[in-house]
Amino acid sequence: MEKSAGERAILKEEKRLEKEKKRRIEQANKMLIPVSKKTNLSLGIISFDPEGTFRLTNHRWMKVFEVTGDVGNLAVILRKLSGRVRITMHLGAESGGDTCHLTLLETGEIYEAIRQQMKSDEEVLATTLSLKVMSVDEVMNQISSNCLNDIRFSYASYVRGKKDWKKECFTEITEREDSFVMNRSYGECFVALSYPSLIKADLMDRLRKLGCQSILCFDLNALSLEEQNDFTRAIEKRYNRRIPTHPEEEYINSSFSLAVLCDSDDARKIVEQTIVSLYANEGVMLVPAYHMQNRVMESIVSLGLLDEKTMRNTKVTVIRGMLGGDNDADAKIKI
């Protein structure tokens, strides 16, 4: 049906207002450095502050830190943060020691407002962790290293040359149904589908003893009190029974994925069986990321630049245990 003159006028005005809004947003963010169209298409980066902030599509912003300290406490302080947090732990890195990176992900349109949000969240994080902000060059070099590449990234050179950052920093992954090959290493990605009510074992130490490189990825997002109540009501409705509430039991929205890299495919198969069994014994349903190996691996090695996750409502005590220790112990990453 053809639109009336009034409807066409309203539609025209809406388009004008939307265009004007986009113009004001771009004007407010003009201090950021834009990337090439190739990089925008491949990685979703729009522009960046060289000191370490990425502006991404879908109003996402990202900043990465090197961290040391009790990462288990993150599950407790999440409610004080405005953004989502990603923890990427690399066990058995070629450099010799474990590494831990924290990615802060915020949502918004204007950089100045985002900068203030990040500053506030950094202050909260600094109460329990030692943070060292990474520049854009350092982040992209770390991503390249995670992809088993050896390059020296320089944003000035790459912007000037209009290069595709993904093509330069990432390694091509040959994907199979439940595994992959990357740079002559045989790997596999796993995702957690469900969690137990309690975790006791020191899973980190057991993973270290497997003798292969492991990269663990935790996405953590706070649940408001209203969201927690909605979650409880949904579970009660599903199972048609009343669930007793315990004020000390807090839930957060979390995602856990894990990647391993081995010297041979036979070793990879043995490690798969060991890891699935290890987590199953603790009540964690960890399964290979079937037909998603490429997407999950690129998300893990990119420190969240490429965003792939499977969020579940999980007890704070469980996430604390999975981050490195028992419920009453420090979950410290030792660099």
Query: How many E strands?
Result: 15
Q: How large, in whole angstroms, is the Cα Rg?
A: 22 Å
End-to-end Cα distance, whole Å, is 66 Å
Which residues form runs of ≥5 with pLDDT under 50?
326-335
Strand percent estimate:
25-35%
Helix tally?
A: 12
Give a quick account of the main beta sheet: strands, pairing sense, barrel closure: 15 strands, antiparallel
Give average pLDDT, whole number. Answer: 86
Helix content range: 25-40%
The ordered string of helix (H) and strand (E) elements is: HEHEEEHEEHEHHHEEEHEHEHEHEHE
Overview of the molecule:
With 335 residues, this protein is α+β, with helices and mostly antiparallel strands. The protein has twelve helices and 15 strands. It has helices spanning 5-28, 37-43, 74-77, 111-125, 136-146, 155-160, 165-169, 203-208, 225-239, 265-280, 293-301, 316-322; strands at 33-34, 45-49, 53-56, 60-70, 84-91, 99-107, 129-133, 173-175, 180-182, 185-194, 213-222, 251-262, 285-288, 312-315, 332-333. The chain has a 15-stranded antiparallel β-sheet that branches. Strand 2 (45-49) and strand 3 (53-56) form a beta hairpin. The protein is globular and about 65 Å long. Mean pLDDT is 86; it is low at 326-335.
Defining traits:
globular; 335 residues; 15-stranded antiparallel β-sheet; alpha+beta; disordered C terminus
